[in-house]
Design brief:
Elements lengths: L1 E10 L2 E11 L4 E5 L6 H8 L7 E6 L2 E2 L5 H8 L2 E4 L11 H11 L4 H14 L15 H12 L6 E5 L7 H18 L2 E6 L2 H7 L2 E6 L2 E7 H5 L5 H6 L10 E7 L6 H8 L3 E12 L2 E11 L3 H10 L3 E4 L2
Parallel strand pairs: 3-8, 3-9, 6-7, 7-8
Antiparallel strand pairs: 1-2, 1-4, 4-5, 9-10, 11-13, 11-14, 12-13
Helix pairs in contact: 3-4, 3-5, 4-5, 5-6
Length: about 325
């Protein structure tokens, strides 16, 4: 649904994006994770060409946006919704007026606008709040208005620029749940910019980790979790590094209640010491990471058994 190839964005001598490739599949929630200054917001603005890249191409729904003139680009942008970190609502308009604004620009007749606005406010849980002003709303409600406005033109792609970073944890979870529901019910492809790992863990199917204008790691979360040495895995499960000499790090997916450790101890003549670990609930299911020390003549056979059981086994030097 979204494909960026060789994206470079330069402001004078400052390079904000340095050869970025991004591939977002239709219908997924894709997170771009990085600290401030990593280039992730610049990447988002290049996807809908609010920032025109210095080099490279951006294709959305099969259409090369970088090849379009202004009129065709404006038309293409109607299929790309965007929600902002600080809501960007018009204080002079009501809630309904804010949601209707893009429809007015598109020339949608008044009766159709009113019907569509009513549908959208109900969809985001703000039915009956259309006459309120933005200052009467909580932060979470303001963001729901922003989401409704972004959906006004029936987009196939929704871009989210740190949409939850100004919200408290409970409100953040409610907004993420709303985005996940919209993704499921409407088939929306969502590209989500964040610096919060919890956002990625809660709703994302795939992720790209950015630093200094480059993507350091990307792919489906389920695949990255099963990739030895993955940076994503290390950040989700922050065990002390480097791993102690002779230790083994085990990564497992699926049912975390499986008695793999006790099975190994029963089957093999080994002593097993747990050095650290945790279990996390990701959008695709539970994942665990455990660091252990194995001693005994049958330790190699025990490690082979763990690999055969589907665990990722990483041995420290």
């Amino acid at each position: 649904m979204i494909q960026a190839s060789g994206l470079r964005k330069q402001y004078g001598t400052t390079v904000a994006l340095d050869g970025v490739d991004l591939h977002v599949r239709e219908g997924e929630i894709y997170g771009v994770l990085g600290q401030s200054g990593a280039g992730k917001s610049t990447l988002l603005r290049c996807v809908n060409l609010l920032e025109r890249p210095t080099a490279g191409t951006v294709t959305v729904a099969g259409q090369d946006l970088t090849a379009l003139g202004d009129r065709d680009l404006n038309r293409a942008r109607q299929r790309i919704g965007m929600i902002h970190q600080h809501f960007a609502l018009l204080s002079s308009r009501t809630v309904a007026g804010n949601v209707a604004f893009p429809l007015e620009i598109m020339g949608v007749p008044r009766a159709e606008r009113e019907r569509r606005v009513g549908e959208l406010l109900e969809l985001v849980g703000l039915d009956g709040r259309g006459k309120d002003r933005p200052h009467q709303l909580s932060g979470g409600q303001k963001q729901r208005v922003g989401i409704a406005r972004a959906l006004a033109g029936n987009p196939s792609v929704l871009l989210s620029d740190e949409a939850t970073s100004a919200l408290d944890p409970a409100t953040t979870q409610s907004i993420l749940a709303l985005l996940k529901r919209l993704n499921t019910e409407l088939g929306l492809t969502i590209l989500l910019i964040t610096h919060e790992m919890n956002v990625v863990k809660s709703v994302c199917d795939s992720v790209a980790i950015m630093a200094a204008g480059r993507i350091e790691e990307s792919g489906a979360i389920a695949d990255l979790i099963r990739t030895p040495g993955s940076r994503l895995t290390r950040e989700i499960f922050p065990l002390p590094e480097p791993a102690p000499a002779g230790s083994v790090t085990l990564t497992f997916t699926g049912d975390p209640r499986q008695p793999v450790v006790s099975e190994v101890v029963r089957k093999f003549d080994v002593d097993l010491s747990i050095l650290g670990g945790s279990i996390e609930d990701l959008s695709g299911g539970s994942v665990g990471r455990l660091r252990v020390a194995l001693d005994g003549a049958e330790a190699p056979a025990a490690l082979a058994y763990l690999r055969e059981s589907g665990l990722i086994v990483e041995e420290a030097p």
